[in-house]
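Budget justification aside, the reviewers requested a transparent look at the raw inputs and outputs of the sequence design task funded under Objective 1. We therefore reproduce one unedited record. The lines immediately below are the structure tokens for a 436-residue chain.
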């Protein structure tokens, strides 16, 4: 799944938390632009038979859907065979830079949007502007947010496959027992729903985690409060703004007001929801297939607008090309990416939302659980294309949110310290890699 899983996330945090600048510098500092031979893409591959090594992290319920697409591509192309190399996302991001440097990397791959700028700055991946132009892809067929976030130093490094966001899952049996006929949409109706659920006997209807996905909830609330958590140019973090502090204060209030137990461990809120122990959870749409298989009576709705404006954290799986010396492999890989983009409607079965509007409006999501979430795609927000931002977030915001939710620091103290440290790290990265 897009969610790397509990053990995978813990390893990812350790891997990425070893020091922002040191991690970024591993593969050299090019400032983006990618190095390696490239040929103008004409839309076809006419070279000799070739086998492409395709790296991805789809180890969960989404894995079989991706493999089905790969198998279909192979059946339709006589001179290109794609072999999937599927691994945990934590291992993927740790291995990729060194493998590319040693000329042992993949021929094509998929990574999360918030990793593109980092790998572009490290000279791990190549620009894809020619491919986007050949496919006639532009912001007109994507949400502006996801399309623009794939650009670093005025070059495109990712072709979007999907978007995936947080959503609100709710137990329909619990709602019926509490007399709730519509999912809450704002702060007032959400509070009313929690109170009604408690009155119906559900003591802790909404568990607030201290770790994953607590920081994704916090980012959502910051955007809803009108705060950009990070400057678009990578110069500073704004967690300590009024909107950032209010976001964390609201999360802590869920615990203080008795709607959530104290000290909810990583992913425990989802497990409790899946087991019918809690009534509402905010989690990623990558949980859909797992919940479908569980038999739990549930439904989905967009995350309520607790702040002033609709917004929700989101990410995207994006195809990339690694730096390499084989022009045949590059051309064949572009054919594969083009084909996958044109078949992204089939990827909706993995619980994702096709990134292309033409696919979303063409019936790909009809009857799918994520359909109401896809209708809110223009409210989805992505981290800016800033090198090292994932590591900065791990070392600062995630820690602050955990401390604030647990009551170990006040929201003001936690966010102030985190913003200062994040800004320092971001300034160091700008000095090493330059601005966008």
């Amino acid at each position: 799944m897009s969610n790397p899983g509990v053990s995978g996330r813990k390893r990812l945090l350790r891997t990425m938390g070893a020091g922002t600048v040191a991690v970024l510098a591993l593969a050299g500092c090019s400032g983006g632009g990618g190095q390696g031979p490239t040929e103008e893409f004409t839309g076809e591959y006419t070279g000799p038979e070739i086998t492409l090594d395709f790296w991805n992290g789809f180890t969960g319920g989404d894995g079989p859907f991706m493999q089905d697409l790969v198998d279909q591509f192979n059946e339709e192309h006589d001179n290109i065979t794609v072999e999937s190399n599927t691994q945990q996302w934590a291992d993927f991001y740790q291995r990729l830079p060194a493998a590319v440097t040693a000329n042992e990397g993949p021929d094509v791959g998929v990574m999360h949007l918030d990793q593109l700028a980092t790998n572009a700055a490290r000279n791990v991946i190549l620009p894809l502007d020619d491919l986007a132009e050949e496919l006639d892809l532009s912001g007109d067929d994507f949400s502006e947010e996801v399309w623009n976030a794939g650009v670093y130093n005025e070059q495109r490094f990712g072709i979007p496959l999907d978007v995936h966001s947080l959503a609100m899952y709710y137990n329909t049996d619990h709602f019926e027992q509490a007399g709730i006929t519509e999912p809450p949409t704002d702060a007032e109706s959400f509070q009313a729903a929690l109170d009604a659920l408690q009155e119906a006997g559900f003591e802790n209807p909404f568990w607030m985690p201290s770790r994953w996905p607590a920081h994704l909830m916090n980012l959502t609330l910051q955007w809803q409060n009108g705060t950009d958590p990070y400057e678009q140019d990578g110069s500073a973090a704004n967690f300590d703004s009024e909107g950032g502090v209010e976001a964390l204060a609201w999360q802590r209030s869920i615990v203080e007001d008795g709607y959530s137990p104290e000290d909810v461990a990583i992913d425990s809120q989802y497990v409790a929801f899946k087991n019918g122990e809690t009534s509402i959870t905010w989690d990623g749409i990558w949980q859909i297939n797992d919940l479908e298989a569980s038999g739990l009576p549930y439904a989905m709705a967009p995350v309520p607008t607790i702040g002033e404006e609709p917004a929700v954290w989101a990410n995207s799986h994006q195809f990339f090309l690694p730096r390499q010396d084989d022009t045949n492999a590059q051309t064949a890989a572009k054919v594969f990416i083009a084909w996958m983009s044109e078949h992204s409607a089939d990827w909706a079965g993995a619980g994702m939302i096709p990134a292309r509007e033409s696919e979303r409006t063409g019936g790909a999501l009809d009857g799918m659980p994520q359909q109401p979430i896809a209708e809110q795609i223009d409210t989805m927000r992505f981290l800016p294309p800033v090198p090292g931002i994932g590591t900065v977030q791990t070392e600062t915001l995630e820690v602050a949110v955990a401390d604030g939710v647990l009551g170990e620091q006040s929201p003001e103290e936690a966010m102030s310290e985190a913003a200062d440290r994040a800004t320092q790290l971001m300034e160091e990265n700008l000095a090493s890699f330059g601005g966008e």
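The two ends are 31 Å apart (CA to CA). The chain has 19 helices and 13 strands. Computational costs for records of this kind are itemized in the attached budget.
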